[in-house]
Amino acid sequence: MNVTRLLFSVLGLLAFVLFVRLWVGAGSYPDIGRLEQQIEQQNKANDEQAEVKRLLQMDVVGLSKDDEAVEEHARSELGMVRDGETYYQVILRTDPEATAPVPQVKAAPHVE
């Protein structure tokens, strides 16, 4: 009888430890929920990066096929101008960030 009581006590304690681990420890239900949220966030970030990659690939294809696209990128992103052109920047009074002086962009010398 004493051995049976000891055996039930050990088994009860083991079951209690396993249930506590199921609800609190690593791999518990709350931990799994947190990991699923992290997976969902990472999947969203991956989808956003895939869209950026797709747009960049389209841009590369467009630049490799069209000289006008290359020129447009040079003008809009690098501020380049052709020889003989004059660059004008219009600053609207409604734009508070544009009131700071902007350095002048000079045309690169034409090399032949």
How would you characterize the overall build of this protein?
Part of a complex composed of FtsB, FtsL and FtsQ. Residues 1-6 are cytoplasmic. Keywords: Cell cycle, Cell division, Cell inner membrane, Cell membrane, Membrane, Transmembrane, Transmembrane helix. It comes from Thiothrix fructosivorans. It is a single chain. With 112 residues, this protein is mainly alpha-helical. The protein has one domain. It is 64% helix and 0% strand. It is rod-shaped and about 105 Å long.
Gist of the model:
The chain is an all-alpha fold and 112 residues long. It has three helices and no strands.
N-to-C series of helices and strands: HHH
What amount of the residues lies in strands?
Answer: under 5%
- How many distinct beta strands? 0
C-alpha Rg (nearest Å): 33 Å
Subcellular location: Cell inner membrane
Pfam families: DivIC
InterPro entries: Cell_div_FtsB, FtsL/DivIC
Protein name: Cell division protein FtsB
SSE order and pairing:
Blueprint: H1 2-24, H2 29-65, H3 67-78
Helix pairs in contact: 2-3
Keywords:
112 residues; rod-shaped; mainly alpha; single chain
